Amino acid sequence: MENPTQLSALLARIAETTGVKVSLVPSQGTAAFPLSYAGETYTAYVEGAGEEGEKLGKLISALVSASDARPQGESDLYGALLGDGEKAKRCMERYSFPRGACYALDLSAPRLGESAALLESFTGGKGFAVQTGAERFAIVKFREEETPAEYAEFLAQFLLEELGVKASVGVGGAVSGFSEIAVSYAQAVAASRMGGMFKREGGICSYREFLLCRVLEELPREKLEEYIAEYCGEGAAEIFSDFEMTETAEAFFESGFNLSEASRALYMHRNTLSYRLEKIERATGLNIRKFSDAVTFRALALAFRLLRIRQGDK
Q1: For residue 262, which of 5, 72, 127, 307 sits 20 to 30 Å off, Cα-Cα?
Q2: Torsion angle defined by CA atoms of residues 56, 61, 66 and 68, in that order, rounded to the nearest 10 degrees
Q3: DSSP code of 254?
Q4: Which helix (H) or strand (E) holds 43?
Q5: Band of residue 68 on the pLDDT scale cut at 50, 70, 90
Q6: Residue 8 pLDDT exceeds 70
Q7: Phi, psi of 223 (to 5 degrees)
Q8: What is 220-310's CATH superfamily?
Q9: Which tens digits make up the pLDDT trace of 159-169?
Q10: In the chain, what are the helix, strand and coil shares in percent, each to the nearest 5?
Q11: What is the pLDDT of residues 252-296, one digit of tens each?
């Protein structure tokens, strides 16, 4: 029978791209799980035990089931995302895309390998996915009732809970039709990049969150240096160069200035969070429990980070 040979080759490719070792032969330290391929069910074995082995088994099953589902013309799909009008037109004719609003996501996730088809299956037939890097994917979804941010949240949550994969998702805004999808995709990529300035790996970043960052990015380096020199003393510079402190402030802002919610999000004791906020105030003179000081702090933190990036110190 030819299928086991093809399946073994497929599992070898998945192992190469994801780092997850799986085979059709049991060995010490492996967990068994059912695997469907070409209409038949096999018993496969993955390195790992317990909950970790179960999650890895689900990941491999999903990748195998999605392996033959990719459409042709992927270069046209990617070209449309990059703003090639002719390729966008060919895609609209070839795939009979729905008319109406759509949006793009920029998703980064480890261990997914070549799994655009897996991500595409989450669109319910209302979109597509294109691999843009080793662990990076562009997803286009034709808008239904959910907002782009709600769909991104659903997708990230599913990957985490069902497959144990922690994804980072940049969210673009909705555009009127597929011919304008390059605008949404550019926003999604920008959101991923800007989100990386303040957030660790994993999480949802919408381009709408970063208007202030986009405004500051347009300022010349000399102007950023002027603002930082005017408002940042030595102690403030130490705070703004400490990723943990700026991340603490961001979590506090995103919680709606709620200490309890922010401490839960950071897995940090409430007293520890209060101490950090007080440390920020002593060093910067800004009480970020107040909205006006919080806005100033965020603007200065962004300016400091942008200047460091321009100087090549990332």
Answers
A1: 307
A2: 120
A3: H
A4: strand 40-47
A5: very low
A6: yes
A7: -70, -40
A8: PucR C-terminal helix-turn-helix domain (1.10.10.2840)
A9: 888 778 888 89
A10: 55, 15, 30
A11: 998 899 999 999 988 899 999 999 999 999 999 899 999 999 999
- Domain borders along the chain are 3-66, 74-212, 220-310
Cα 5 from Cα 182, distance rounded (Å): 41
Which helix (H) or strand (E) segment holds residue 272: the answer is helix 270-284
- Name the more confident of 49 and 42: 42
Distance in angstroms between the alpha carbons of the first and the last residue of the chain: 54
| Residue 256 in tokens | 């709606």
Both structure tokens of 25: 């032969």
pTM of the model: 0.65
Distance in angstroms (rounded) separating the CA atoms of residues 130 and 76: 10
Measured distance CA(18)–CA(72) in Å, rounded = 24
The two three-digit tokens of residue 209, written as one number: 């969150």
Q: What are the CB-based long-range contacts (under 8 Å, 24+) for 296-302?
A: 296/231, 297/249, 298/212, 298/249, 298/250, 298/253, 299/212, 299/216, 300/227, 300/228, 300/231, 300/232, 300/236, 300/240, 301/198, 301/240, 301/246, 301/249, 302/197, 302/212, 302/213, 302/216
State phi, psi for 162 to the nearest 5 degrees: -90, -35
pLDDT (0 to 100) of residue 290: 94
CA distances to 189, 204, 206, 243, 258 from 294, rounded to whole Å, are: 26, 21, 20, 17, 13
Nearest to 106, CA basis, from 83, 81, 136, 74: 136
**Rounded mean pLDDT of the chain?**
81
* Chain centroid offset of residue 162 CA: 17
Q: Which CATH superfamily is domain 74-212 in?
A: Reverse transcriptase/Diguanylate cyclase domain (3.30.70.270)
CA angle, 79 as apex, 76 and 83 as ends, to 5°? 135
Q: pLDDT over 90 for what percent of the chain?
A: 18
